[in-house]
Amino acid sequence: MYFPDKMKYPPGYWRVFVLALILSNTTMATAANPGENMPKPTPKAVFIILDGIAADVLESTPTPNLDEISGDKGYTRAYVGGVRGQASESPTISASGYNSLLTGTWSNKNNVWDNEVNDPDYGYWDIFRIAKAHDATLHTALFSTWTENRTRLLGNGLEAAGGDKLDYHFDGFELDTEQFPHDIAYDYLGKIDNHVTDEAARYISVHGPDLSWVYLEHTDDIGHMYGDGPELIAEVVIMDQRVGKIWQAVKSRQRDHDENWMILITTDHGRDAETGMGHGGQTERERTVWFVTNGADLRERYYQMPAMVDVLPSIVTHLGLDMPEKIREQLDGESFID
Ligand SMILES: [Zn+2]
């Protein structure tokens, strides 16, 4: 608090000063009240999965873009893999991790136990289906280095999965061996990540979809090849730069439009403690993931080891989506935002 030096002010100053204070408070109060009736900024959400980055690896790597997004309260550790030793225990495998986010349920419900995704149970609705059921005009998009996120996990276009839920998708490049010839070092997947990132940033800045998902893979490939070490750290640095491009797009939307963006970045599993090459089991390091968000109104829950299945209810809260009671009752998680 700043107190003016009495000696510098003539007698009577205090009355003027106090009157000015009262007036300024009154002005602020009158200005704030009509604001309550103004339309709120349109809520928007984008979530990004960066494959296979253990929490300790992320924490020990310089990631200026993720740091800017999280500020001083948007980073937390979280977990995947369900409840250890109980029915919901789920493998720390990629597709199971993605689908825990997408459906807000563990593998014993959504039935995704591996990357084959042979028989997912679409009775557990994904976030895009919930959004479209709430309001079919909501604009949805997917940008992905793995095509089966769309064709199998979301089952996009399948009647059992709620039909077509994506207004735009950008994927299929790992199947395009002409544009992206496969090399044994898996460099092509890094190139696809760049391609997917550039389009996600462009599309978000131009169209501002209400709900979008960006999936990038190359960190997991590097982890499987080299395990923990400088190669993986170098790829995490590149991932951070990819996220930075999408974050710039989000910031441009916030600046130029009346929109309220929530961006959330996470990973699908950790890595084994011995080498960092593998994952799939129930060790602490494989089960431990992390969230980075710019989201406001984070509840205490966010800092108490939230679960991957908490992301869906949190996005639902941010976007203000209604969902059928039956779908809500099936959820394994809870919102970590108010
Ligand atoms: Zn993975």
Q: What are the main properties of this structure?
A:
single chain, 338 residues, alpha/beta, Alkaline Phosphatase, subunit A, 7-stranded mixed beta sheet, 7 strands, 12% strand, globular, binds zinc ion
Describe the structure.
The chain has 338 residues and is α/β, with parallel strands linked by helices. The chain has one domain (43-330): Alkaline Phosphatase, subunit A (3-Layer(aba) Sandwich). 41% of the residues lie in helices and 12% in strands. It is built from 13 helices and seven strands. It has helices spanning 13-35, 55-59, 64-70, 94-103, 107-110, 127-134, 148-153, 187-207, 218-226, 230-256, 284-287, 311-319, 325-330; strands at residues 42-50, 75-79, 140-144, 168-170, 211-216, 259-266, 288-293. The protein has a seven-stranded mixed β-sheet with strand order 2-7-6-1-5-3-4, with helices on both faces. Helix 7 links the parallel strand 3 (140-144) and strand 4 (168-170). Helix 3 (64-70) packs across helix 10 (230-256) and helix 8 (187-207) runs parallel beside helix 10. It is globular, with a radius of gyration of 23 Å. The chain starts with 12 loop residues before the first helix and ends in an 8-residue tail after the last helix. Residues 1-14 and 25-32 have low confidence and may be disordered.
